[in-house]
Design a protein that fits this description.
By secondary structure, the chain is α+β, with helices and mostly antiparallel strands. It has seven helices and eleven strands. It has a seven-stranded mixed sheet with strand order 1-2-3-4-5-7-6, sandwiched between helices. Strands 8-9-10-11 form a four-stranded antiparallel sheet, sandwiched between helices. A hairpin with a 5-residue loop joins strand 9 and strand 10. The longest helix is centred in the last third of the chain and has 26 residues.
């Protein structure tokens, strides 16, 4: 377990993704709560994953991979300026290795595009984990937790799962400066892998995407350090491409 990568899963509807989520969740629930997930529960959860995917425009997911093996995941969605964690599970043998915290941080960073806070419903034995990571119950005794996610003054490169209107407008301005076009449908409908460089106000100052999972193209806003931002974007895109190829060679699936 020396090569753990947390990667964005741009298309959750790809073959095998939800089945992997269900497998990891089942192992975690058996280990922590001695709960054996029934076939009926598995079918219901699988249907719930698909329903949320179809119903919510802004869905996000990250997988923690040990080499090519998925060992943990987090998934959720954004709506009305709130990002919601729907599930976060890690295989028992990988717990207490900061995998869960890294997955949670990834969800927080990508949620900053559209949300001001992140909320979740915690299982009883997970409350300490979320409190350790800065989450607080909405009221005393509640198992619903929240955390402000836009109060960190830093620039960052994040994966883009959905292009909301304000994000689209900013990217179109960048595109005009670079004499190209930005089509949000590539992200929202086709789930093209994309990364954006956000300033301290979570406004994109550059973006890069790959439409063939082999090369990346980066575009930077006017009056910004082009080389610095482009390198950050290419690095993120190319790291995802390399990991995608490795995983895809094993599974013959599409992430």
């Amino acid at each position: 377990m020396n090569n753990i990568n947390v990667l964005p899963i741009f298309n959750q509807a790809a073959p095998g993704i939800w089945e992997d989520f269900l497998r990891i969740r089942a192992f975690a629930m058996r280990h922590i709560y001695n709960h054996h997930v029934s076939h009926a529960e598995t079918v219901a959860l699988r249907n719930e994953y698909e329903l949320n995917w179809r119903r919510r425009g802004f869905n996000f997911a990250f997988g923690a991979y040990d080499g090519t093996d998925l060992i943990g995941f987090v998934n959720g969605d954004c709506c009305d300026r709130v990002a919601t964690i729907r599930g976060l599970y890690v295989l028992p043998e990988c717990m207490s290795k900061h995998v869960g915290s890294t997955l949670l941080k990834s969800a927080e960073n990508t949620g900053a595009i559209a949300a001001r806070e992140l909320d979740l419903v915690s299982l009883l034995k997970s409350r300490g984990f979320y409190e350790h990571n800065g989450y607080t119950p909405i009221m005393h005794g509640s198992n619903r937790y929240s955390k402000k996610i836009r109060n960190r003054v830093q620039c960052k490169t994040v994966p883009v799962f959905y292009s909301i209107p304000s994000f689209t407008r900013a990217c179109r301005q960048i595109s005009v400066f670079n004499k190209t076009e930005f089509n949000p449908g590539m992200i929202n409908q086709e789930h093209t892998p994309m990364f954006a460089y956000l300033d301290v106000d979570s406004i994109p100052q550059g973006f890069a995407f790959t439409d063939d999972a082999t090369t990346s193209r980066a575009y930077v806003a006017q009056h910004q350090p082009t080389d610095f931002i482009a390198k950050r974007l290419h690095r993120a895109c190319n790291a995802w491409i390399a990991a995608y190829k490795q995983i895809n060679n094993k599974t013959n699936g599409s992430r």
